[in-house]
Amino acid sequence: MPNGTKWYVSGVDEAEAILVVTRTSTDDRGRGRPSLIVVPTDAPGLERTVVPVEATTPEKQFTLFFDGVRVPAKKLIGVENDGLRQVFHGLNPERILGAALGNGIGR
Q: What is the pTM of this model?
C-alpha cells in the first residue's frame, strides 16, 4: 500500500478495521488506479493522531498516517484497480438516501 496521509477520519478508535481507497497502480497517463482494501487499525505502520475540532460530537476525528503498511492480498475488496467504480456504486446510493432522509422525503 502506498505511503500517505488521510485527514478527518472518524471512529478509528472504535473500529477494528478501516476501508481504505488507495492507489495501487497508474494508467498510461499517470493517473492513479484505486483499489479498496480493509486495513486493521492495529496494522504496523498505521499511526493516528486526534484532530482537535471545535464541534462537540460523539466521535473523535483523526489524521491517519500510512508508513509502509502491508496487508495480505485477501484484504482486497473486489477487483484490484477497480476501487473507484466500487466506491461510487456503494456511496452514491448511500448519499441519495441520506439526502432524502435529511429532506423528509425518505423513510
A: 0.75
